Amino acid sequence: EVGLAQFDLSTGELDLGSVPTMATALGELARVQPREILVGGSLPESSLAEAAAALRQTLPSALVSLDPPLEPADVELAAPDASAQRAHLEVARAAAARAVRFARACNPTSNVAPQRLVRWELSDTLLIDPTAQAHLELVVSASGDARLTLLHAIDATMTAGGSRLMRRRLLAPLKEVAAIRRRLDMVELFVIHSAL
């Protein structure tokens, strides 16, 4: 199992989950396009360095760093045991702890804490393969002009975090009708009450 976590400082949302293989993790990270990636865990250092090299090759614009070992307190502080709500695997909690520890180190004068834990489940979304993304020109056009993509046409977000979220949701749309309706209800709320 490979733990994955992404921490959006603008919303305080901490997504955490796991995937069965490193290849699946590489695919998911290529879709998400993070700016920083932390690599760590209980593997031998040579295996961690190999994973970091694969990440650098897959995501050349991302800063990939080997992360020092975690203390148990780091894990508990970043991602408390949520067994009352839903169980998060230890590898997912460790990945979340690394993300929060990194965010706190980058923002030492701020009280950085996750506001909401979200289970990162690949099965909840439709994964659009790179060939289909290219043909649909979702985020990259055939000419390379970003203005000719669907993302550019619909992205009216005001922040970088909002733009990243829009991109992530466009590349991995929800599959469950109930979840789609909840998301549309949230959009409707902001359309009706635009002053929010």
Indicate the topology.
Blueprint: E1 2-8, E2 13-19, H1 22-32, E3 36-39, H2 45-58, E4 63-66, H3 72-78, H4 90-106, E5 116-119, H5 130-136, H6 150-154, H7 160-171, H8 177-192
Parallel strand pairs: 2-5, 3-4
Antiparallel strand pairs: 1-2
Descriptive overview:
The chain has 196 residues and is of the alpha/beta class. The protein has eight helices and five strands. It has a three-stranded mixed beta sheet. Helix 3 crosses helix 4. The longest helix is centred in the middle third of the chain and has 17 residues. The radius of gyration is 18 Å and the shape is globular. 20% of the residues are buried. The model has no long low-confidence stretch (mean pLDDT 86).
Radius of gyration of CA atoms, rounded to a whole number: 18 Å
Spans of at least 5 consecutive residues with low confidence = none
The pLDDT mean sits at 86
- Number of H- or I-type helical stretches: 8
In brief, what are we looking at here?
This protein is α/β, with parallel strands linked by helices and 196 residues long.
Features:
3-stranded mixed beta sheet, 196 residues, alpha/beta, globular
